[in-house]
Amino acid sequence: MKRCLSLPWRWVRVVATVSLAATALGTMHDSSAAPIEGVTQYHMTIFRQQEGESIPIGDGFFRFDQQAVDQILNEWLADPNDISISIEFPVLAAEFEIFGHTFHDDEIRWVEDFDDEGFSFNTFVTMSNGAFVNFAAGFDQGTFLQYDVNGNFADCINGFCEGNDAGGDFFFNLPQSFEWFEEPVTAPEPGTASLLGLGLLGLGLMRRKAS
Fold this sequence. Notes:
alpha+beta; 2 domains; 12-stranded antiparallel beta sheet; 26% helix; globular
């Protein structure tokens, strides 16, 4: 039975390396990867304006169950019992890094208010796990951004902030913004997934041999 694993180790290394390289190339260049139906992902960034440049200080993504949101909204629109409804988007995966601190998954909440025509008019994003980031934007309230992360604090109204950096430097009327846009969410092709599995198997065998 040992003959089943008698492939020379130099070839295991080659297989693992080639498989992982092919997977990486496929991920970078395969534009035919199928989008995941019923799933939406937002890319989120917090920018700070300094010396005429927009400098990102926080970046991440929020992936949610779009199908569940649509179902809740459509059922309510069929028989609305109020002038608006608040819907919390069911998170599937999320991550946001700011000032060396990272929020994950259900530590990030996304809520939107919809009117009785299905139009979103308020957005609320909260991140909390000791540190916090809060953002709100709407037609009737303007925009608000707050964060308290690793000694960095800011309180912003309509893009202008006051607060302090971790080094103790204070700032006033410093423009900062929370921005997001929808980005494609795709599933790996079967061939790509197989190559990745083969590459990881080869690396596992190499580690077992080394030990």
